[in-house]
Amino acid sequence: LLPEAERQRVLQAWNDATVDFPRDVCVHERFARQASLTPDAPAVTYGPVTLSYRQLDERSNQLAWHLRSLGVGPEVLVGLCVERSPDLIVGMLAVLKAGGAYLPLDASHPAERLAFMLQDARVSVLLVHEHKRQQLPAFSGATVCIDTEADALGRLSTAPLPRTSGPENLAYVIFTSGSTGRPKGSAILHRGILALAFDPLLHPFDASDRVAQASNASFDPSTFEIWGALLHGAHLVGITANPAHSPQEFAAQVRDTRVSVMFVTTAVLHLLARQVPGAFTGLKTLVFGGEAADPLALREVLQHGPPQRLVNGYGPTECTVFSSFHLVDAPPALGFPVPIGGPLTNGPLYLLDGRLQPVPIGVPGELYVSGERLGRGYFNRPELTARIYLPNPFSSVPGARLYKTGDLARFLPDGRIEYLGRADHQVKVRGYRVELGEIEEALRLHPAIKDASVIAREAGGDRRLAAYLVPHDAIPDVSELRAWLRERLPEHMVPASFTPLAALPLTVNGKVDRRALPNPEPARGDALSYVPPQTPTEVALCRLWASLLDVERVGLHDNFFHLGGHSLLATQLVSRIRAELGAELALRVLFTGPTVAEMAQHLGTLVPDDGPRAVPPLVRAPRDGALPLSYSQERLYRFFLRAPTSSAYNIPIGFRIRGPVRVEALRGALQALLERHESMRVKFSEEDGQLVQRVTPAGEFPWRFEDLRGQPDAEAAAWRHILADAATPFDLTKDPLVRASLLCVKDDEHLLMICVHHISADGWSMGVIARELGALYSARVQGRASDLAPLVVQYPDYAAWQRTWLTGTELSRRLSYWQQSLAGAPTELQLPTDRPRPPVRTFNGTHREVHLGRDRSDALHALCRRENVTPFMAMLSAFGVVLARRSGQEEVVIGSPIANRLLPELEPLIGMFVNGLCLRVNLRGSPGFRTLLQRVREETLGAYAHQEVPVDQIVVSLGVELPVNRSPVFQVMFVLQNAPEAPFELPGLTVTPVEVNRGSVTYELALSFTEMAGGFSGVLEFNTDLFDTRTAEGIRADFLRVLDAVLANPDLPVGLDAQVS
């Protein structure tokens, strides 16, 4: 339960925006009042045609009388298919004055879809332009051609009609995509339009405004444009230029028409921010919305002559266009989502859990909308309406309802709302709301398709639809599939790619596992095979296409649009060709000749094509003072403060070197390695209550060379030294945090031991050390400079970057996944021990080898291919079965390390980047192993997607408190080594790694594997203060027995009550 103060804040204090508006009249009545006040003021202008308020009022009255004679009245829908022109506005007003409601129709939509809409909405009258009439499906009702019948309509009465409708009657219905495969119509009332038009938070309309009318009538923001202007005496101005075809022309028209208020989709805003960032100079208010905004695009707009008010508007069609607003009055922070803000007036917003209870601030919940703008529901769909429009338990108003948006969001501490994505399978593509189920249903109707799934993928900053098909037999031709879909769906709902699959991956619940769908295949037609580019121009175009469309390979005959291109991407392509090839390509060329071969014919000789490079997000931090610690460094430094004499986090690596070692060259190589990597020469301290690190100049590398050939047993003496050195703690308040010993045990045979503290390096770093040390030694022996590339950034830069990025609301937002994933999971593994647990955590341990062998490893790979999982997931599942059965717990949490090098700049660094994933293995319900695999797969993929969250912060957020003798959340690790390994090669020498077993382990149990030529091999580490060797060998035997059983029968039950043998 929320504390009362927080509950009051989220339910009331942040929902207190109310304002009076004319709630007792209809839209057309408010317009008539305005027309009587300013009859001669311009009302509507499209191109050269302008109608005054008097003319608009009289013409709409004349048409309304005619519609009334055709039976139009309250709750009667009139189909409206009219070009954006004064006739469109006349038609809308006339329908309302007749008492009816309008249904905007887009003639470019498939005839089948339009026919369904007309039938579902029970349309009895069509109001059209004559040239649109031929594009519409057959219609048996009355049809009025507003343009060709203008003379006859002009002879009708201009007197106002008697009132037949009220503010609770329908005003319009707009159809959006539906999850069942059928579009659904949102029924909007007069009251909702008035509440929107008189809300001052989006824009305080007045008679001085010139409002742009740029949206299609079937796109609900047109409501904001049209009625926001006409109910306030403002001037509605049509914008005819298409920003996707010509951003420059669009910007020029905005400037030339002197509009002061405008709406654009977020996709168009992004396009103009790239192409013409000053397009909105002079506007009073620019409202944008439709999908998440790019902070960089908003910065571009703000820096190039911004509008007076830049507003991010959010809202579902079902709630009359907009429900929330966020005023972008300062450049938004990069790397953070742009909030959707707070509620508009008269429309409280709630973030609720599955029990319709408010969620705490910062915790994700589903967004519900209430208030005056709520529509009636879905036209002719009472069951769906009842599921989505719910009684409002927080309102004292009789009949008050909530609209369930299906959007996930969370409250920021200041009350603004941050959008987190969809809770269902509805997405927005270029501003259009799309139900993926509708596309899937259309695909399943194709005679060659047995099943289908559609997802939205982000690629190159653009969202595209990807279809996955299970064919009955032969795979249908892509072009034929596209034609099939275009007959049934609007263009924005036709997927960019089509990938055939033998079967759709399923979750444990039998639902399609969308996260398991592979990367989409480029959608080439079967008729054209890949033809490589030949000329320099063709090569350059293929490179640009591949980059923009995010595909690996582009051929001469590939079609830009079949590969996922659309008009916005086409504009970007034209811009890139202009910038990189110095050629001006008309956009029409791409539409008329959409292949590389055709485009190349229009471009002449290639000019230098080195384009600008993106600035990396990670940059060097100033070195003029102390720098913060990364989260991983902080954890290890706090451990050091508690146990300064512990060597538990020492990482020793050893090598046997045979041959004539150049000792000074090796020492010089180690010195250069220290100078190259700041992570090994930092000092840690506490300053003003903050843990900090300071980079120090590279002093002399801590080095010891000893010739032991005179010892009775040189090898034993060397190992005594190595083990003693590995057990010697580092002082983290001093530098450096690395040391090395070279011990001569025979003529031309040495043991090299390098020891580094974990705070300065991780497992990946060992490969970096080996690779770079070999390169530095080779350069010294050969008397040349090293060819290692300079490092762009250093580990302290990463630490500062991480602390700037993963903090505050950003960290809280990312932690929410782990809080949900681990909710209710056990925090302790109750494995029986062979002796009482020591009062404090210890690290004494040893290991036993585990080998799967070639046959077992091959069988494991075969199972993984069939089940679409990885060997890591399969072995983790088997290990989880062993731990669950030995502990008697149906759920266990196992830790696993992950490299966590999220940026390419971090890959060549020595540093502590590794993070721990908390992986939940759930055996509830006694699942078969195949089912368990899918559970673990889903869990693992979710963890990978949130790997950047430091495990220490997860522990803190969960509030886990365990005794000091146990590790929190997980006490057992599973590892499949996959970090890039570099052999340590020294010229003229033979180098082999040697294991430095220092009798220390980090966790109570840890099973780790590496795939070798002979199969998977690894070790089972165990804490010897808890487990006997016999117990560890029993765990190893159990693991192999379980693995053999499930490889033989993947459906074998593996719950606690099942017999696994």
Automatic annotation (TrEMBL):
It comes from the Bacteria. Its cofactor is pantetheine 4'-phosphate. Keywords: Phosphopantetheine, Phosphoprotein. One of its GO terms (cellular component) is cytosol. One of its GO terms (molecular function) is catalytic activity. One of its GO terms (biological process) is amino acid activation for nonribosomal peptide biosynthetic process. Residues 532-607 form the Carrier domain. Belongs to the ATP-dependent AMP-binding enzyme family. This is Amino acid adenylation domain-containing protein.
